[in-house]
Design a protein that fits this description.
There is one protein chain. The protein is an all-alpha fold. The protein has one domain. 71% of the residues lie in helices and 0% in strands. It has 2 helices and no strands. Helix 1 packs antiparallel against helix 2. The longest helix has 21 residues, at 10-30. It is elongated and about 35 Å long. 7% of the residues are buried.
Length: 58
């Protein structure tokens, strides 16, 4: 059922991270944050989540 050495699905991890960060980012924009800063935060959060997924960090 759970394969420790299964091939990592980076596209799925990136999509999940981007959706999660995007929800929080859209809320921040509605509260007055600059959209470019919000997009940068989303990108950084996505990259961090992909790295965590790649190296099996919680």
């Amino acid at each position: 059922m759970y394969h420790k050495n299964a091939k990592k699905d980076l596209l799925g991890a990136a999509a999940t991270a981007a959706l999660g960060a995007g929800v929080v980012t859209s809320f921040a924009v509605t509260q007055g944050q600059h959209p470019l800063i919000a997009v940068a935060v989303t990108g950084i959060a996505t990259i961090f989540a992909i790295l965590c997924h790649q190296f099996d960090l919680p």
